[in-house]
Amino acid sequence: MVSINQLTVDFGGFKLFEEISFLINNKDRIGLIGKNGAGKSTLLKIISGHQEPTSGTVTMPRGLKVGYLPQHMKYADTRTVVEEVELAFAELKGLEKNIADINMEVAERSDYESESYMALLDKLNELTERFNLLGGSNHEALIETTLKGLGFERSDFGRNTGEFSGGWRMRIELAKILLEQPDIFLLDEPTNHLDIDSIQWLEDFLKTYSGAVVLISHDKAFLDNITKRSVEISLGRIYDYKASYSKFIELRKERREQQLNAFVNQKKKIEDTEKFIERFRYKSTKAVQVQSRIKQLEKLDRIEVDEFDNSSLNIKFPPAPRSGTVVVKADELSKAYGDLLVLDEVDITIERGEKVAFVGRNGEGKTTMARIIMSELAHQGKLTLGHNVKIGYFAQDQAERLDESHTVFETIDLVAVGDIRTKVRDLLGAFMFSGEEVDKKVSVLSGGERTRLAMVKLLLEPVNLLILDEPTNHLDMRSKDILKQALRDFDGTVILVSHDREFLDDLVDKVYEFRHKKIKEHIGGIYEFLDKKKMESLNDLNASIATKKNESLKKETSKGKLSFEERKELNKKIKKAERLVEQSELNIAQLEEKIEDLNQKISLPENASDTSLFTNYKEAETSLEAEMTIWEEAQETLESLLQQKEDLD
């Protein structure tokens, strides 16, 4: 569908990537991977036509519709949310007008058998089919579903876009792109401004979308749940794997080990051959063998080992001074912005050494609570900090707060005090700013570089309470893993405002959910919380079904016993449900057997590079998961029918 051919990008003698080529096929789900600065965003800009390469071409079919969401963009704030999103239906609006004009013309004509009249009807049918394909008269419902899925309330629809923060305006732009239904999505960090609920909604949308998806994301869970192919940019080259991110990491490691083994073996063979040539070069009796070995070396296809970019952060937080047992305590705390109440008489207690997550939809008060703890906002109610609490704070917009006129070195040197001033260069070096990079102006730094620089400030003095508001938004995978380990090792208290499930997993031991102006405490990790939320929703649903069932049974009881025909129909439904359960159980057994067989094949060393096995394994796992859902629904239906029969007997 889209062909990238021999693409090279040269920035003043530095080649970002050189002669890279790959194809984007219809229905591909590609994760574009690489460290910050590797060229991922540049590649998306080139594919979308927003930037020209130094050399090479991008070819695609005429009329192919591309939906591109950049990481940063400028906004025009002259419309309401709905008016802005309706721009996605510009083609549909045009079709609607054309259809209305043709219908009017058809109604006025009477030459029903003429060629021009028949051509007009054909045109009407063609436009109507296209109109229905794009959502037709249902486009208002599509707008509402999409906006709600991305976290907007109905009350937001009529508000001017200028009333929203940059993150929310990015959601509006994402909604427009989703509603345009392009042939290919090019999404650059789409989850940066989304909360967990919205991310999960977007996952479900993209997984079932009929077009192709190419996305840049440092959210491992998001990548794993959507992508089936990984294209890594590293040191100017690309590595293409038909696997999700986690599987790609495993395959890349295996490939490098195989290359190293083959390289070592080949190197030994070359050395032995060269020794033979050197030893017998001047012996006439060995002249034929020597010439043969020389030709072998000339024809030998030299094995190369993939180069990996191993530069990474080196974070270690200073030891935390001891604080009191209770670090943060809020009693009946409330916060309102004018008439807008955000927090309503909430209670919260965080103790020394705890690592907790603040989660919830954007606008529910997570950042507000963090700023109240920092004494940046006035509030009602009581908030108490424990004895000897010293706070290190990373704000959500910390990277944007940096003074762009300063250099990297000046940014830290101006705020460092005491002995740490003699170690500024070492500190910057630990955050991948070395040599001439410390003299770069902040204005030319990428989002990831700014985030790293802002994070250096946290290490300037020892603290015992770290409050990090969305610290991973611009960090690459490796940097996030290193930050996560540093936070694990930190012996103080940590409050994390984050939507990154993989980052929070195995890091936090308590989750505070912000919802409907209240805060609810959940003991356990992030995935336990998410599973519980699904279970709570299911329990609510089951409770609703049970209520309706009881009401229905009461009505039937008041009418008397079921008739013979009605009982006969109920028994037929039970038998049908039993057959569905049996068939589903048979399918599950077959899929489990298939997965076990594939698992045994994958474990064999000779199959390590056979990506089709991994693909089949993943597809089988997906099929098993879907079949389990079918079985659960069939089992619930059967149990419901049997309960009805029991209640009537």
Automatic annotation (TrEMBL):
Tagged with keyword Coiled coil: yes
UniProt name for this protein: ABC-F family ATP-binding cassette domain-containing protein
UniProt keyword annotations, A-Z: ATP-binding, Coiled coil, Nucleotide-binding
Residue ranges of coiled coil: 567-608
Membrane-spanning residues: none
Pfam families from the UniProt entry: ABC_tran, ABC_tran_Xtn
Organism: Carboxylicivirga marina
Record's keyword annotation contains Nucleotide-binding: yes
Domain (ABC transporter) ranges: 2-260, 328-541
Cited InterPro entries: AAA+_ATPase (IPR003593), ABC_tran_Xtn (IPR032781), ABC_transporter-like_ATP-bd (IPR003439), ABC_transporter-like_CS (IPR017871), ABCF_ATPase (IPR051309), P-loop_NTPase (IPR027417)
Gene Ontology molecular function terms on file: ATP binding
